[in-house]
């Protein structure tokens, strides 16, 4: 299967061993050829005991010597372009993107100021922080865990900056909502229902096996890749006075497939020959780094309960832990619900229903409060199984699914119009394949009443979910008193208020506007100035069109279906 | 043929027509129809006249549209719907075109009403749950999928079970409860249940076969499961407690791989000692042999005792020199002594197990 949901490094066994189409042991070079009888090969290839390939001449004009052939290496990009095997790609990236790779880059990094020095920057996903926080013998709020990770990464590993990815997510959510309204207005080639794009497992699966789904998947970049843009193009260029290739950007993610995402060619800067995110490690690998350095994340660090730096558009830093209400997988659907509610002239009510009591498939409906008309439908769909149903329903509605007879006649289901937050892992991102395993104390609950063993991973995923929400819902000005001393009560997602935003929303809005203004402007440090909401949209239509193109370039991406040519090994039974 | 056995396997019909090896045979549980599928990508459906001398005629041949071998077929309990499992990685769902107001198929062509996509590679087997609520499928991609049948030929995926470490050869539902069994090239059998608040999960793994497990058949009373293997044996697993199954018997009467096993209610009638009849088990495989066993259990039998088994009939070279790939008892009342087989010769054969 394609997903890292249940995949950990130890599970990697290539059940479809690198498929036939994938084996390209010999690098071809187009050397001039002598004339000879058609079909008469000039050389033969021999393989020695060690598996090396030799080209041996056999025609009269050759001297009979043999030449060792260069072995072509299969790069991650080769794997991404192939639908043949899945786990081979995973095993390739283990060497390319691993915690040992991080250590080796940091060890070889020339000292600051020396030529070739790269500024090391670490960005961590809030789900990773939740996993680390929940796994401690005495769980702590995620805000405190962020301080501890920051302290460890700066002091021990030598990172210059440590951020969480929530501000990047904030930008992604805004762009996602913008894209939704564009689609609603009938943007060409961008049909509804829109399917969220933050899950690389889902995107990769759709590209490999359901190309017909790609037009529905939001083109908005994931938080990880928006973070890449923020670090390498905004902070580096405008505030640190660095080129993108002078930054070494490491992301800590709950998911193995984020490694694949970071490797996509869209996220590679050709001009500077650098990736927006240079290396992705999982939550588990970050913990391994800490353990290998003898750092215990259960121990407090100085200032870990200090109030965060207030959000401001005048200081070039990213606010900590913006956690919009909704889902622990990024609130993609809920941010749309809020956007639709805020755009509505009339009061709306929200109705949420777990289909068959399944927490991994929850439908949300916005209705006009007075008429009861449905204004918006959406669903959060997690896990491979629910993803299959998304593919089926959306495919059916759009008439893109194969099927004859009645299948064609029945096109257009009731639930087909729903926008969906799709995540490949059961439980969503908090249950990602790169997260920490359930600690010992959890394994005791793994049998039901009559002794039937049950998977305990679900219970553990729920605990990580609680940890995700356990921190302050929205730290920042106004809620600066982080009164969470020992207060790690199990809380759930804050209630969704359909009313308009708060003061801190305005400050985030201003910072987002600042980012966009800076990125639209010629490179160079900006003057410290307060930027108002909506700045940058003042000038005429031409400049607005330019702004729009620029924004798309910064915050959107695209997908490509991968043709399957590999299946069909001539199975006989 | 062994002369000392009390029953004989008597030929009733020889049905040729497939252009390539025939893989699977399935009796419609409600109507006088028999379906076979083949590497020629077609499904052939035969109709038959009532006993005592049923006459089989071709009812229809469905080209299916599958792009590769049709490896497995299954009738829904109502008999209205046929599912096909193909090497093209898809499951096809077939119904007759014309239905009356009650949804009863009354005529017309068999048409594909939907395709279940999801498996990555060759599908090997497909099976309906006893109520027709669920459909299970399995594949070389090592997964077992559970689908829920919904109105308007819609299906919802209820679970993707990634428990086996190799190709999954067969899926089979318990005759009364919603318990699913799967058999694999990894030599194991796995049993699954639905956790109402979560997903389907594997609650036990049965190990013991020394090679690929090709086929599964539940006893009509649901207390036993039979498995056929490349290790040339048929194993009988007994329900010890609600969620615990143990191998209680190993039948070694085949000279080559046992490809298929089927468990019917057998000929109605009294057993010798007042024991409860557990029905008749038939097996076949690479040796071309059909074996038929009668099983019974005395009322005072303890939990771990094997059932009493008796080989009652045997036929050699059922399809000449060819492998026999599938065998199935007719489930319809009054026809319980009929079995059907298909083989590498592309022929479907119907047999009656009759007293000597």
From TrEMBL, chain A:
SUPFAM superfamilies: Fe-only hydrogenase
Stretches the record annotates as Disordered: 431-453, 468-504, 520-550
Name of the protein in its database record: Cytosolic Fe-S cluster assembly factor NAR1
Keyword field contains Glycoprotein: no
Keyword set, alphabetical order: 4Fe-4S, Iron, Iron-sulfur, Metal-binding
Polar residues composition bias: residue spans: 481-502
Residue stretches of biased makeup (Basic and acidic residues): 438-447
Species whose genome carries this gene: Lactarius akahatsu
Pfam families on file: Fe_hyd_lg_C
GO MF annotation: an example: metal ion binding
Tagged with keyword 4Fe-4S: yes
Family affiliation: Belongs to the NARF family.
Signal peptide span: none
Function: Component of the cytosolic Fe/S protein assembly machinery. Required for maturation of extramitochondrial Fe/S proteins. May play a role in the transfer of pre-assembled Fe/S clusters to target apoproteins.
Domain Iron hydrogenase large subunit C-terminal: 121-433
Automatic annotation (TrEMBL), chain B:
Gene3D superfamilies, per the entry: YVTN repeat-like/Quinoprotein amine dehydrogenase (2.130.10.10)
A GO cellular component entry from the record: cytosolic [4Fe-4S] assembly targeting complex
Keywords: Repeat, WD repeat
Domain of life: Eukaryota
SUPFAM superfamilies listed in its UniProt record: WD40 repeat-like (SSF50978)
InterPro entries membership: CIAO1/Cia1 (IPR028608), WD40/YVTN_repeat-like_dom_sf (IPR015943), WD40_PAC1 (IPR020472), WD40_repeat_dom_sf (IPR036322), WD40_rpt (IPR001680)
CDD domains: WD40
Annotated signal sequence range: none
WD repeat ranges, renumbered to this chain: 15-46, 63-95, 116-148, 161-192, 206-238
GO terms under biological process: iron-sulfur cluster assembly
Known function: Essential component of the cytosolic iron-sulfur (Fe/S) protein assembly machinery. Required for the maturation of extramitochondrial Fe/S proteins.
Family: Belongs to the WD repeat CIA1 family.
This protein's name: Probable cytosolic iron-sulfur protein assembly protein 1
Encoding gene, per UniProt annotation: CIA1
């Amino acid at each position: 299967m394609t997903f890292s949901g249940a995949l950990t490094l130890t599970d990697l066994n290539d059940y479809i061993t690198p498929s036939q189409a994938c084996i390209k042991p010999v690098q071809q070079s187009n050397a001039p050829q002598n004339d000879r009888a058609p079909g008469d090969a000039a050389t033969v290839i021999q393989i020695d005991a060690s598996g090396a390939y030799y080209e041996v001449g056999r025609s009269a004009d050759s001297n009979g010597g043999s030449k060792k052939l260069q072995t072509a290496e299969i790069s991650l990009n080769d794997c991404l372009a192939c639908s043949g095997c899945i786990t081979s790609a995973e095993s390739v990236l283990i060497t390319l993107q691993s915690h040992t790779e991080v250590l080796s880059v940091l060890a070889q990094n020339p000292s600051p100021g020396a030529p070739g020095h790269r500024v090391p920057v670490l960005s961590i996903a809030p789900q990773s922080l939740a996993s680390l926080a929940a796994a401690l013998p005495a769980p702590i709020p995620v805000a405190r865990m962020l301080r501890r990770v920051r302290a460890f990464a700066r002091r021990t590993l030598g990172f210059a900056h440590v951020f969480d990815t929530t501000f990047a997510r904030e930008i992604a959510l805004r762009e996602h909502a913008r894209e939704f309204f564009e689609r609603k207005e009938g943007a060409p080639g961008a049909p509804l229902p829109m399917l969220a794009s933050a899950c690389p497992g889902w995107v990769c699966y759709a590209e490999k096996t359901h190309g017909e789904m790609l037009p529905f998947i939001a083109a908005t970049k994931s938080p990880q890749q928006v973070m890449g843009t923020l670090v390498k193009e905004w902070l580096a260029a405008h505030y640190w006075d660095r080129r993108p290739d002078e930054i070494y950007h490491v992301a800590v993610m709950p998911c193995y497939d984020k490694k694949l995402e970071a490797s996509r060619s869209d996220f590679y800067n050709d001009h500077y020959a650098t990736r927006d995110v240079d290396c992705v490690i999982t939550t588990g690998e970050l913990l391994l780094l800490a353990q290998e350095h003898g750092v215990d994340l259960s121990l407090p660090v100085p200032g870990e309960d200090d109030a965060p730096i207030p959000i401001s558009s005048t200081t070039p830093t990213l606010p900590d832990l913006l956690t919009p209400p909704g889902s622990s997988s990024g609130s993609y659907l809920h941010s749309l619900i809020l956007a639709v509610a805020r755009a509505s002239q009339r009061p709306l009510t929200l109705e949420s229903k777990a289909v068959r009591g399944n927490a991994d498939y929850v439908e949300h409906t916005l209705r006009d409060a007075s008429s009861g008309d449905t204004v918006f439908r959406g669903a959060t769909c997690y896990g491979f199984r629910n993803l299959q149903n998304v593919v089926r329903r959306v495919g059916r509605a759009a008439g893109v699914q194969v099927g004859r007879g009645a299948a064609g006649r029945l096109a257009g289901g009731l639930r087909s119009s729903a926008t969906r937050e799709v995540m490949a892992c059961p439980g969503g991102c908090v249950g990602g394949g790169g997260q920490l395993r359930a600690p010992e104390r959890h394994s005791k609950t793994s049998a039901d009443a009559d002794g039937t063993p049950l998977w305990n991973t679900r219970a553990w995923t729920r605990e990580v979910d609680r940890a995700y929400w356990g921190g302050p819902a929205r730290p920042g000005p106004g809620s600066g008193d982080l009164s969470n001393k020992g207060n790690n009560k199990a809380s759930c997602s804050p209630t969704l208020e359909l009313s308009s935003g708060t003061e801190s929303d305005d400050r985030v809005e201003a910072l987002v506007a600042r980012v966009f203004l800076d990125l639209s402007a010629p490179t160079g440090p900006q003057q410290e100035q307060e930027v108002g909401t909506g700045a940058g949209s003042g000038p005429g239509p031409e400049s607005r069109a330019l702004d729009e193109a620029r924004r798309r370039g910064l915050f959107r991406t695209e997908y490509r279906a991968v043709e399957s040519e590999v299946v069909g090994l001539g199975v006989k039974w | 043929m062994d002369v000392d056995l009390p029953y004989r396997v008597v030929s009733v019909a020889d049905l040729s027509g497939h252009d390539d090896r025939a893989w699977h045979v399935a009796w419609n549980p409600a109507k006088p129809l028999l379906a076979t599928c083949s590497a020629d990508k077609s499904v052939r459906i035969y109709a038959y006249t009532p006993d005592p001398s049923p006459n089989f005629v071709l009812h229809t041949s469905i080209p299916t549209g599958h792009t590769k071998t049709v490896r497995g077929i299954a009738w829904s309990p109502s008999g209205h719907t046929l599912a096909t499992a193909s090497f093209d990685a898809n499951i096809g769902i077939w119904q007759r075109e014309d239905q009356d107001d009650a949804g009863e198929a009354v005529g017309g062509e068999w048409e594909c009403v939907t395709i279940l996509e999801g498996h990555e590679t060759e599908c090997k087997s497909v099976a309906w749950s006893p109520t027709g609520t669920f459909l299970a499928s399995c594949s070389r991609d090592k997964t077992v999928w559970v689908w829920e049948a919904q109105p308007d030929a819609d299906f919802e995926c209820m679970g993707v079970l990634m428990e086996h470490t190799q190709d999954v050869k067969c899926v089979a539902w318990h005759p009364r409860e919603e318990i699913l069994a799967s058999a694999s090239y990894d030599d194991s059998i796995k049993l699954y249940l639905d956790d109402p608040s979560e997903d389907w999960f594997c609650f036990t793994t049965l190990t013991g076969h020394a090679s690929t497990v090709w086929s599964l058949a539940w006893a009509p009373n649901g207390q036993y499961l039979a498995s056929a293997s490349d290790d040339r044996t048929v194993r009988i697993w007994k329900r010890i407690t609600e969620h615990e199954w143990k191998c209680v018997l190993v039948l070694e009467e085949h000279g080559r791989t046992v490809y298929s096993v089927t468990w019917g209610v057998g000929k109605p009638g009294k057993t010798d000692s007042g024991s409860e009849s557990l029905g008749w088990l038939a097996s076949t495989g690479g040796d071309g042999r059909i074996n038929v066993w009668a099983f019974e259990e005395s009322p005072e039998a303890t939990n771990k005792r094997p059932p009493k088994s008796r080989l009652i009939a045997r036929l050699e070279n059922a399809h000449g020199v060819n492998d026999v790939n599938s065998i199935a008892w007719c489930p319809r009342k009054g026809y319980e002594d009929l079995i059907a087989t298909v083989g590498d010769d592309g022929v479907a054969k119907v047999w009656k197990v009759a007293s000597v």
